[in-house]
Amino acid sequence: MTTTAPATGAPVIETHGLRKVYRGRKGTHVAVADLDLLVPAGGVHGFLGPNGSGKTTTIRMLLGLARPTSGSMRLFGEEVPARLPAVIGRVGAVVESPKFSPNLTGRQNLRLLSRSIGVPDERVERAVATVGLTGREKDRYKGYSLGMKQRLAIAATLLKDPALLILDEPTNGLDPAGIREVRDTITGLGEQGVTVLLSSHILAEVQQVCSSATIVGRGRLLASGRVEDLLGAVTRHRVTLTPGTHEAGTHEAGTHEAARSAAGVLTSAGLPCEVQDDGSLLVTAEDPTIVTRTLGEAGTWLASLAPVKRDLEDLFLEVTAGQGPGMDMPPDWSGAEQGGAAR
Amino acid sequence: MNGSWLPLLRAEVDRLRWRRAVLLLVLGAVVVTAFTFTVTAWDTRPVSDEEVAEVRQTTYVVSEIDQCTAHPRRYLGPRARGLDADEAARTCEELVLGWYSGRPTLDVASELGNGFIACTVFVVLLLLLMGATFAGHDWSTGSMSNQLLYETRRTRVWLAKALVVGVAGLVVSAVLLGALWGGLLLLASSRDLPVPDAVVADGWAQVARTAVAAALATLLGFALAMLFRSTVATIAVLFALAVSTGGLVAAAGLFSESSRWDPVTNIAALVEGSASYYVDEGLDRECYTSYGEVRGRLPGCDPERTVGAVQGGLYTGLGVVVVGAASVLVHRRRDV
């Protein structure tokens, strides 16, 4: 597990030993396993994990939609779900796909929510304008595209003027322009001091907007901390060999043979490496001089050695290796994260 | 969040009135009520002069009127007492012409037990569906989870919805059945048919009791739909219960008095003021003939029993409270 120092600020979300076990006729399934989650105030926090890793279940428990089997949770320092009514007014959330009444208009759906908490109707108009639905708010929800439904769901979160925004895959179904708009909205909210917990599969996007991230797999915490710290935790280098310089290889034997031979040398020296399709080597080493010295001593000269900067996708794949979707789930648990059996 | 119930209730009222299925069901109840009134008014419309003239020309009608006038007690029964010859002749003519013109005179007292009850059954069933679809729609669309992100106190959400839909059931049924009863009274008045004060009061009391029954039915539909999270499942369960309740009650060991605990008996008692049922077991030995038949006329052997409105109301109300309590408890604890 990779854990780095979190960003400064009092935590807005805290979970300790959070656990959720679903029991069914075909056995039990642990959706969340003793998860310790810490989301500091301010900024955008990515919440990443493969399908079935417990992200949505965790979010649903935080919002009182699902009951934890054990463990504790806090929002704004308040114990939830016991004190959830006291803090829910500061929390906006989109969980899974947007869910509204299909025969009502977008505006009617928002008004039902705003009126239930005593928010004036003017805020509905403002939220509609913020997400760019002005002109379409009088249309029935069932006629909306998926992107418009997502926008409406985001508009609904803005009715509360939230200090914490929990967004579960908010860009699902959006076109590139819509994705950029949502990304800009999220970034803007983060800059305004709103804490955003962003659960997403689009890792490049998360990397663009998130200041910190948590990666979970099979309901367990795999990595957490500032994005720059997480990405800098392991350094890799791409090595290109000079053709014909290796003692065991010739130019004619081909670059790949030379690379494989060099890889054997590096591996024997305790430096993990992989031969890439283009004949280069990807070597994991904290200090690049060890690579040059090891290969030099073996009579292999380097044409180039460049540090490889990891992105979130590399890190994600690295820490979630073997944490694929539903690895040990019984068949009837495939929909557990989506809120149970279809109705 | 806001501690007041008012915003939540207001939102639920909007949710109810904006729901198309609810409006259609209420419209259905209006149509059923209007249809009942129209059919009653048409079937009991006064015989026109042309019709009377036509019928009066028929030989056997003239003969029947003459027979009645000559022997009024034979035809009119106790009503013949105190009538002078002219009154008896007029009454006989109305009676016989009524028979042969094929239309009865409007009798609002008997309508309470006929057309009014039929209308009541339809209205109550439609309102039960209204309660079920009000809750079922929230689950089928998934909007319940969205609502709970704004008001997390689930008991409060349940109660606010129940209050709104229950009051709606009460008001809709009271207005419709009140209009039906008031319409029948006006119709009788317009036809110069006297209605005793006791019948008028009975009718209004029945409207009030029916409105209570309708509100309970609406709440039952709502509570079951919240429990099963589906309108279709609720209807299926209610259908299964309707089919099997009699057998279940009997199987529960309540043998000789099983009808006492039959929901139909109790709901009928609530609506009509009282309902009778019969026992064929558990009477004294001397109440039975050697063939096992009940000697009903012997003292203490009458097999007929009566359930009053209060008893029926308590039974029905308690049933709804039990289902409602289960529904609230499950709603409080269940993952959404």
From TrEMBL, chain A:
Domain ABC transporter: 13-243
Keywords: ATP-binding, Nucleotide-binding, Transport
UniProt xrefs under Gene3D superfamilies: P-loop containing nucleotide triphosphate hydrolases
An example molecular function term from Gene Ontology annotations: ATP binding
Record region (Disordered): 322-343
Nucleotide-binding is among the record's keywords: yes
SMART domains registered for this protein in UniProt: AAA
InterPro entries, per database record: AAA+_ATPase, ABC_transporter-like_ATP-bd, ABC_transporter-like_CS, P-loop_NTPase
Superkingdom classification of source: Bacteria
Similarity comment: family membership: Belongs to the ABC transporter superfamily.
Protein's UniProt name: ATP-binding cassette domain-containing protein
Organism for this UniProt entry: Nocardioides bruguierae
Lineage per the UniProt record: Bacteria, Bacillati, Actinomycetota, Actinomycetes, Propionibacteriales
From TrEMBL, chain B:
One GO term describing the cellular component: plasma membrane
Keyword Ubl conjugation assigned: no
Residues spanning the membrane: 21-42, 115-137, 158-187, 207-228, 235-255, 312-330
Keywords: Membrane, Transmembrane, Transmembrane helix
UniProt-recorded Gene Ontology molecular function terms: ABC-type transporter activity
Official protein name in the record: ABC transporter permease
Native source organism of the sequence: Nocardioides bruguierae
